[in-house]
Design a protein that fits this description.
It is built from 14 helices and 22 strands. With 461 residues, it is of the alpha/beta class. It folds into 2 domains: 43 residues, no CATH class; 331 residues, Alpha-Beta Barrel (TIM Barrel), CATH 3.20.20. It has a 9-stranded parallel β-sheet with strand order 17-16-15-14-11-10-9-8-18. The protein has a 7-stranded mixed β-sheet with strand order 3-2-7-19-20-21-22, with helices on one face. Helix 5 packs across helix 8 and helix 8 packs parallel to helix 9. The two termini are 36 Å apart. The structure holds zinc ion (ZN).
């Protein structure tokens, strides 16, 4: 028998440790690990490289500032170059799911380079009633924004496919919506992703800071204090315990939030925690550019250190990027208040974590792999299909050169965004080849695959 391809001489990161064998791939799956090289159509030489499971980016916003068919092409292009093989879209639908989800799915189907999955945001009780319908369409995780309400309930929804108009909306998150979402999710066996910031505290903080004519990233952080995260975390966990819901806290980056979550875990709440590369590498003490404006805000270097600690103590489970595919023209305003929150990050996820984490001995490669693939796959119902280099798994593999050094440039990634917050950072450790279901999608910072190869991942809640 001639197999499709063999990756020769990689150091393979498996859940059971490092393996020095060839990886045999057929029909998109890993079928064997061998010492010899079986007959194959394609040989991929990986001498000197480390084979890790393709990354799963748990938190990606695209389809908001450009329509999803275009956004899927550009952002999955950046994903492929960054070694990400599955991107999880944070869908914000300003319509009922029953009438508008199918159009979003159809517009996504032919334009991804890498595989993808979808989290559905629940903004009101009507959408909460549609959660079962969502699961029937393959959408098996849900999102709540506790930060939307009062005068700060403004949000951009995902664009309607076929349009290029920004879709502005206001949202008032209600307790009834939160309760129904958590109750339904528990019945359906789906996790609920929570953006934990208390909108009332943030509204008040922003008002005060503006009155006092404050500006800059430190004012932004002060106006949305870690205490607002803590309040929101405590509130939602109490409801989650009532229903037995699994909560997944997105983008946790402050010491106070981390310890609040530990307290709630002790009380028996089922919790998973995600952080983002920027909460490990950026602080308002070091960064000044409005480009690094994000919600929740980047905090202090001491918070950075606490997040690194929480990673090594296994109090954080995953790393997502909170990638927002926007452009400078919209992004940067006259002051921090008029600047847009969020920035791109899917292309730099792996190089940042390799350079600032693994190569600086802040975390092991083992731990990085666990957080960026295995844990994400398990939490979101994609394991054992994805998440590890195992026999029978999808051949989603990223070959990494731990020694390669390169400067970050926005143009490298081909994203819709015309900037990155890490511009000019010299990083050590880059992906060299990205395979999605056995197909080489990117190699040597070039995308080789065609859009449309990426599929919606079949998930089991
Ligand atoms: Zn987000």
């Amino acid at each position: 028998m001639t197999v499709d391809s063999v990756i020769t001489e990689p150091h393979i990161m498996t859940p059971k440790g490092i393996l020095q064998k060839n990886i045999v791939i057929n029909d998109g799956k890993i079928i064997d690990f061998t010492s010899d090289t079986p007959q194959c159509d394609k040989k991929i030489n990986a001498g000197g490289l480390v084979a890790i499971p393709g990354l799963i980016d748990t938190h990606v916003h695209y389809g908001v500032y450009s329509p999803i068919d275009e956004a899927a092409r550009t952002e999955s292009h950046a994903a492929a170059l960054g070694g990400v093989t599955t991107m999880m879209r944070m869908l914000r639908l300003g319509h009922p799911y029953r009438t508008h989800l199918q159009a979003q799915l159809a517009a996504s189907a032919s334009s991804h380079h890498v595989d993808y999955a979808i989290h559905a945001t629940i903004f009101d009780e009507k959408q909460a009633d549609e959660m079962k319908y969502c699961t029937e369409c393959g959408v098996t995780s849900f999102k709540l924004y506790m930060n939307l309400g009062g005068e700060i309930g403004h949000v951009y929804m995902d664009m309607d496919p076929g349009t290029t108009q920004l879709f502005e909306a206001t949202v008032q998150i209600q307790t009834n919506t939160v309760r129904k979402t958590l109750s339904n999710a528990a019945k359906l066996g789906c996790p609920v992703l929570v953006h934990a910031e208390d909108y009332q505290m943030c509204e008040c903080g922003i008002k005060k800071a503006k009155q006092n004519k404050k500006d800059g990233l430190s004012a932004w952080s002060e106006s949305r204090p870690p205490d607002s995260e803590v309040k929101s975390i405590n509130q939602i966990c109490e409801i989650a315990r009532e229903f037995g819901t699994t909560i997944y806290f997105v983008h946790i980056g402050s010491a106070a939030a981390i310890s609040a979550i530990q307290e709630q875990r002790k009380k028996g709440t089922k919790i998973f925690v995600e952080t983002c590369p920027h909460y490990l590498t950026l602080s308002h003490e070091k960064q000044s550019s409005y480009l690094a404006k994000v919600m929740p805000p980047i905090r202090t270097t001491q918070d950075n250190n606490q997040v690194w600690n929480a990673i090594s103590q296994k109090n954080i489970d995953t790393i997502g990027t909170d990638h927002v595919a926007n452009r400078l023209k919209l992004k940067v305003g006259q002051d921090v208040w008029s600047s847009l929150a969020g920035f791109p990050g899917i292309g730099t996820l792996l190089p940042i974590m390799l350079s600032e984490g693994v190569n600086k001995n802040r975390m092991t490669l083992d731990r990085l792999v666990e957080m960026t693939s295995l844990n994400a796959a398990k939490i979101f119902g994609m394991f054992p299909q994805k998440g590890a280099i195992n026999k029978g798994s999808d051949a989603d593999i990223t070959l990494v050169d731990l020694k390669k050094e390169q400067k970050v440039r926005a143009e490298l990634f081909g994203s819709f965004s015309d900037y990155v917050v890490y511009e000019d950072w010299r990083l050590k450790g880059w992906p060299q080849t990205t395979l999605v279901r056995g197909q080489i999608i990117a190699q040597d910072m070039q995308v080789l695959g065609k859009p449309g190869w990426g599929r919606l991942v079949k998930r089991v809640p």
